[in-house]
Amino acid sequence: MATLKLEIVTPEARIYSEEVEMVTLPGVEGEMGIFPMHIPLMTQIAHGEIIARKGGQDHFLAVGEGFAEITGSRVAILTDMAIRADDIDEAKAEEARRQAEARLAQKLGDEEQAMAQASLMHSLTQLNLKRRQKR
User: Fold this and answer.
1) Runs of H (alpha helix) within the chain
2) What percent of the chain has pLDDT over 70?
3) 55 Cβ neighbours under 8 A, 6+ residues apart
């Protein structure tokens, strides 16, 4: 079976680098399914989930905003956040959500507002994925 090399990189580290059968990305216009031999594409991704199908099993990651470069044999993602579902600490994510919401309730400058909003989106993305995994 044909595969794609999926690489996910954040400013801190390479989070994922494996051969996969299919990738589902959270595009700004909706989800995109990427199979081997996909037409080359550069696109923006939104907060959400990446699903990597490997060996017939789906592996889930929570991701923040970023960009994806897609070729027929590779999907390279640069994002501000990427966490494997198994590595998400629900209690920490819930606390980060509460702190971000409290921060947003204050009078903030534009830069602080954007940082608090990004923090809120990161924590909500993690919580949504973790809670769906529990079902």
Assistant:
1) 90-104, 110-134
2) 99
3) 21
Residue type, 82: A
Rounded CA separation 43/103 (Å): 31
Q: Which residues contact 50 (CB under 8 A, 6 or more apart)?
A: 8, 23, 24, 25, 26, 60, 61, 63, 77, 82
Asked if the 4-85 domain carries CATH number 2.60.15.10, the reply is: yes
In the chain, the amino acid numbered 87 is D
What's the average model confidence in pLDDT over 79-96? 91
Across the chain, the runs of DSSP E, i.e. the strands, are 4-9, 14-20, 22-27, 30-34, 41-45, 48-54, 57-63, 66-70, 74-79, 82-84
